[in-house]
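dumping this here so i dont lose it
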């Protein structure tokens, strides 16, 4: 039987509970071992007793247990069945926590999110899935309150980049449609076990409670077309638009697509639908 006899956030504790289990580098398994940083994450997410919290990549509970101690109703997803056994044993005294073994990118996410509203996602996920994880979560913006993650520095900068910045991307556009991303804290690689090869950041995406009525799917399709032809001038991406169309839109046809704001993308989406019959 596993007991919390050692400090939870220490290499000694992790080695003790892992025993002969060897972590899989291909799954990006690394655990937070800085209690102060974990408390900071929970405070930045403003986690309160009784709130639903989704954690992706729960590992052996170095974040899950402090969330449970706050009284949150935690739904912890962990891909590695070996770690799930450890996690369930360590969390046996927290009946409000549910552990699910599975690949987050393949599970039925709606079956989880439909059970509650105003979910907070608080996680230290594998870095190999962070972009896909955020994209998948944002398929259900009406169920979410906020997303707070530790991310590799490169992805963190991408999420918070303005139009025209080298890190501005399709993912940035999707985040901007549904919420506002902010880098809250830069994180040293030394607070993880084992340490990653890159520095990290805590990023919070605050989901808009009320969103402007707009054709979100069409806007994302326009953005996808633009970023597939990154560095091309916009008139080459949408050759059907005339010089008069560009004047009406107040967008230079010689602008590069990655310099366009969300509002610009919406204007292009609307004219392509209304004047040229662009299908969904």
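and the seq i came up w/
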């Amino acid at each position: 039987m596993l007991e919390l006899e050692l400090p939870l956030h220490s290499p000694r504790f992790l080695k003790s509970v892992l025993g002969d289990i060897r972590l899989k580098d291909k799954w990006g398994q690394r655990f937070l071992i800085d209690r102060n940083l974990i408390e900071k994450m929970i405070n930045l997410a403003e986690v309160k007793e009784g709130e639903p919290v989704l954690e992706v990549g729960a590992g052996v509970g170095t974040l899950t247990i402090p969330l449970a101690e706050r009284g949150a109703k935690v739904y912890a997803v962990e891909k590695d069945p070996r770690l799930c056994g450890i996690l369930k044993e360590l969390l046996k005294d927290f009946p409000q926590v549910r552990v699910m073994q599975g690949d987050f990118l393949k599970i039925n996410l709606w079956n989880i999110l439909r059970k509650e509203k105003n979910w907070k996602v608080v996680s230290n996920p594998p870095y190999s899935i962070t972009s896909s994880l955020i994209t998948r979560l944002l398929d259900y913006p009406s169920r979410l309150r906020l997303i707070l993650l530790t991310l590799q520095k490169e992805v963190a900068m991408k999420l918070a980049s303005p139009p025209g910045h080298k890190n501005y991307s399709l993912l940035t556009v999707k985040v901007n449609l549904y919420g506002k991303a902010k880098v809250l804290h830069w994180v040293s690689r030394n607070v993880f076990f084992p340490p990653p090869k890159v520095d990290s950041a805590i990023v919070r995406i605050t989901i808009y409670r009320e969103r402007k009525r707009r054709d979100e799917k069409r806007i994302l399709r326009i953005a996808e077309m633009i970023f597939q032809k990154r560095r091309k001038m916009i008139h080459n991406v949408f050759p059907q638009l005339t010089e008069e169309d560009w004047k009406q839109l107040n967008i230079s046809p010689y602008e590069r697509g990655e310099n366009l704001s969300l509002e610009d993308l919406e204007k292009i989406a609307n004219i392509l639908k209304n004047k040229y019959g662009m299908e969904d």
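Confidence is low (pLDDT under 50) at residues 1-6.
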